[in-house]
Every structure is written in C-alpha cells, then in structure tokens.
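PROTEIN SPECIFICATION:
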Amino acid sequence: MHTLSLIFLLILSFSVSAQSSLQRDLVESIKLLEKHHINGYQPIKNSNAFFLRVINNLDPDHLLFKKNDVDYLLNNYSDIHLTITTKANDLQKDIATILDKNLIVYNKQMEQIYPWLNSIKKLQDLEAYDAFNDTIFSKNEFEHLERLRHFHSFLLLEEFNQLNYTNETKETSDYIPFITSYLTKLKKIILDEQQFLTQHQANLIQQAIKKAFISFQDPHSSWLDFNEFKQLKNALSLEEKTFGITCKENNVGKLVIDYINPASKVAIEKLCKEGDEIVLLQANKSKIHAPSLLDWYNVNLNEEITSIQLTISNLKGTTTSFSLQRESIENEDNIVRGFFLQGHESVGYISIPSFFTEWESDAHNKTMSNALAKEVVKLKQGGIKGLILDFRNNGGGSLKEAMELISLFIDIGPMFQYQFKNKEGMIAVKTAKDFVRGKLVDFPIIVMINSKSASASELFAAALQSLGNALVVGSYSFGKGTFQNVIPLYDTPQNHDYLTITNGIIYTIDGKTYQGKGVIPDIILPEIRINVAKKESDYKEFIQPNLLKPIAQKQPHFDANFINSINTKGITQRVDTINELIKKVLLETDDNINWLNSIEKEIDKLLVENSIFPLKVLPNQSDLEIMQSDSDLHALISDQTINLAKDPYLQQTYSIINQLIKVWKQN
C-alpha cells in the first residue's frame, strides 16, 4: 500500500453531503450511547490514547505527523474527556494547521526520496522494514526521512513479492524497469492524494475525531458514514448492486480492470478483459479522461449513478466504448455451497462464509438460513449419514440469521439467552426460543471453528454445543459475545451518518458466555501459526461479562469417553512441523522477497505428502449439471474440491464424524 494510503481510502469515510457541526455530532452520539449502549456512555480517560487514534485514522503509517505534533495536542487538550464536546472545533483547526505545515515538509523530503529510489539497481539493496507500530513517531526530521526511506523499501519488496507469484525470475536486470515504474506510479499517487487531502481536509479530520471518540466505548461500537453503511449492507447481502467490475492502478498509475464478475453483463457479452485500461469514464454527463482509482471509487460508491460509459484500450492499443447499468449480482463471497465427502461414510459438508441477510423491503428469501437449508436438502437426497458445518474464518454478520440457522437444527425450545438495554434504558434479560417443532436433520453434526470465527458464527456453535445438538471441533474462537444495533445519528432524511452501538451480551442456556474467551471446542485442534487471529480480550475496551442463571441443561449425544477416544496426533504433528518451518523461515531467512511464498509452498507440500486421512470431495448433483455448461463455475468448484480434499482440518474432522456416526448408530 502506498504512502498516504489510508488517507486516500478515507474517501470511504465521509458522506458527499455537507456534515453537521462536529460538536453537535459528538453531543448527539453521547445521547445515543447513553440510551442504547449496554454500559451507557463511557468517557475517554486517556487523552494520549485518544490522540494516537485520531492521528492513526489520518496517518496510519506516521508519514506526516511526528512526536512533537502529538505532544502539542496532548498539552493543549490534556483532559479530552472533559473538553471534547466543547473544544471539538478548536481541535479540528489545530490538527488542520499541523497537517498543512507537515505536508510542506513531506513534499520536501519526498524530493530527496525520489532520486534515492531511482538509484537502486537491485531489490537486494533494500531493507525489509516493519515499523508500523501505532505508538512510534519520528522525533525529528532526520528520523522522519529515514522512516520514509525504510517505508518505501518495504513497499517495493511487498509489491515485487506479489508480482513474483506469477513471475519468479530473479534476474537483476528485471528489477530496474520494475523500480522505475514504481517511481512513476508513486509520483502520480502522491499528487492525487495530496489534491484529495486538500479538497476534503475538514471532513477527513472530523471523521478521524469522531471515529476515535466512538472507538473508546468498546471494540465494536463505531461511526459509519453513508458509504460505509452501504458497504456494510453489501457485505451482509447475497446480492450487491454493481457494474460487474473492480479496478486497480497498474505499475504506471493507469486505471485498469482488475476483476470481472462472471455473472455480469461485462463477462457475458465479453466487452473487455482483465488488464484493459480505462481511458475515459462518463457518468452523470461528466467526462473523466485518464480516470484515477479515486474517480472510480467516487462513481462506484454513489448508488445514485445507475449507468456509466467506459472507453477502454486493450493490450493491442485498440479502443472500444460500451455502457454499463448497475445490476444486482450475487456476492460470490456469500454463496453457500454443499459437497459430499466420500470415504467410509458419505458425509455432507457446507462452508458458511458469512451470515448474510435481507435488508428492509428486499424480501426475496435470499437469506443465509434459506440458502443453507436448500443445500442440506440436496445433500440429504444424496444419502449422507452426517453433516459438517464449517464456520472457520466466518467473522459473523446478522444476529437474526444466526437465530434462524440455529432453529433449523434444534427442536422447539430455548436457543440462548441475552442481556441487553431495552427501550426504557434498563438492563433486561431475555431467552431466544425456537417456536417450531422439528429439525432439519436427525444425524450427527460437527461444527468447525477457528480463531477467526466470530460473532454470529460463535453464537451458532455455542448454542448447538450447549444444547447438545452438535460437536464443536477446532480451536478457540475469537470471543465476540456482544451484538450491535445500527442506528442513524439523526432521524432525518438528510442524515448520512450511523453508529453501530453494542446493545447486549449473549449467553448460552447454562448461563455462560463466550464473550472475551471464545467458544471452547469439544475437540481442540492446533492452528497453523500464521493463521491465528487476534482475540476479543486483546482489545483494551472489550466488555467484561457476568454470569447468568442457567435455564436448561444440555443432553449431549456423546460423552467424555468418546471425546477422549479421538486421536488427533496426526494433525498435531503436521501443524507442529509447519509451525517450526514458519519459525525457522522468519528467524533465519535473508530472502526478504520470497519468504511468504516459500512458506506457502512448503505448507502445501507438507499437506499433500503427509495426508493421513484420504478424502474424496464431490459436488452435489445440481452443481454438477450447471458445471457442464458454465466453464467459470466448473473451474471454481473444481478448485474448491481440490483444496477441501487436502485440508488437514477437514480430513481430521471427517475422521471424527465417522467415529461419531458409529456411536450414533449404536445408540
């Protein structure tokens, strides 16, 4: 990511229309926190930490602000929890003054960086650099210049590492044009970013202050502008309204097509190819020649723009023009797809990437629970004897969808408890219940989780575990046992800001919660070191839960003897071997360019060569039929079956569910 990258991307962090005053917005947010947050409004107690967050929002790599800037702010606003609402406008002006001054210094220093970059003849001359510590600032201009030099060393290595996945040449002569193109691209990016920063400085500073202010409530309360709210909706929807393409800037700063959605008009009519350059972008009667990535973001995120016209130039230099309409296309990341695992027993497998749902009046039954139910029916028709539901790396989503999903796999009765702040501002406790008799399956279920399973995925795993309806396999989950409401800052049509406010804590039927510590699997599997995620309890402001009274006791279909009989020695040995490899590479390698690539290749080799649970993965019948006429889907599903077959965790889980099926039959 380039120098002012987060500032550049903060186009996503303010609305197009004029903002209300900073002071008024902060006062209104306090009222909403008092009314809706489970712990009410929590005043900021650490002024230094607050300013660090404000600066990190504006300048995450500390390329503009120095230590004396932070010290100046701290000296003038030492009691920020008392002065934030009354001196918000003064704070904004002070930060703007510092930013203007530092941009002048930054430009002068970059004039020294350009010839240094141009003098590099090979990437081995660069230093790998990782100084992105949010508590470290340059003490003076000399340190700042060194930071810039090291920062661009790191970026060059990172970009070449990405390029090297497809081009593994290491000839020194290949580095020089690469560095030259990076320098050309860098100059254009910095010019664009500084123009953007100058034009939108007030909004950027306001948003940096507001986001820092709300973040002190807890890790999951946040400030959203209208664009971020739309992004949230898209992330939790099966369909998104899009032009069917994503774009990026190439090595010389040209806007090119990066990805084409196979279901879009662009793909179906073969209007262009990935890598084609966009030379003209027309929207709302305006023409943008040689558009930038910023121009594309502005058009793509503005849902009021429903049609655009592109003129593109391909690799041969031929130009063509065509128009695109914003269309509803399935979000591939949220598609639920079932597979058959073949071995001793036929077992169904479904990976659940997120808890997508419908918003407002979009009532078309395109929800995650409905999609999963359809996949389970297909697998049952294929004669499965057990079901594996994979929630690894599932960061959560809709609480409503989690409840709907739980109800599919349990009989009538309680699902979980939750403590929340009600409309009267009082703390209350309720029990979520399934009022429909019957469940979707009557055979063994295993739920897979890991450290990146969070929120709604943890709720599903914990609920079925506490009710005795599923065995949980994997590693400790993230530990987010809270839920949030998305609330408009002002209840008016002109409002473009929203707050996500933590409204409550989730508990299982036995009165326990996974908040902070995570769901503890019945059978624990070790994790590969580079995949382990940060935990909820690692955040300073994470909410400390209490215990509730149990309302029921689980009746598991398996006992401690069964769990103790499971042999996980094979996967433990493999993961230990991989973790030792990672440790060795990180500590001993002097190859700064390809270390990550080499680790991934070695991991893949270990997984294939040391497979201890042979597994055959097959698509369901309906997908097989579609694959015959859809080459893109055929390639996608074929890759998925190959990757699943060599997944050591799935192999181990398949072995466990075979043993569980045997016990189930005996009972």
